Every structure is written in C-alpha cells, then in structure tokens.
Write the structure tokens for this entry.
Amino acid sequence: MSTSSGQPPDTPVRTAQDLGQLIRVTRQAQALRQSDLAGLSGTGNRFIVDLEHGKPTMQLQKVLDMIDLLGLEVIIRRKRR
C-alpha cells in the first residue's frame, strides 16, 4: 500500500473498515505496535483496536488526530466518474 516514495497512494475510504485497514497498514509500515500508537496519541489500546477494526461509532476528532499523528491527511473531493 505504499508507493516508491514510501508514501501511501491515494486510497478511497468509503467505510469505517476501509479506514481501519489504512490506519493498520500505515502503523505497521512505521514499525509501531498498537500499544506504541496508543501511548503516542494519549489514547487507550482499546481505541486503537476499535479503530483498526472499523468500529463505526468512533469519535471523529480522535480519529482525525490519529490520522494526523500517522502523517496522513483527509482530503474531500467529488468522486471521479
């Protein structure tokens, strides 16, 4: 899931499970354990587990903070046809 530059490619996220998988792959590519990410983000390990499993009721700001911490960003654009 990464390009030759080491950056993940543009990845469509349409479900909580899609986002969870992207978070997991990015975390693993950075050689971080779930507990490492929990410590860095000031959250509990359960939050990381739930996020990576695509729990649909996660708190949006915490998810956005996690995305930022992993060096990712959210960009909203119209779907390509």
Remarks:
- The chain is about 50% helix and 0% strand.
- Residues 12 and 81 are 13 Å apart (CA to CA).
- Confidence is low (pLDDT under 50) at residues 1-5.
- The two ends are 23 Å apart (CA to CA).
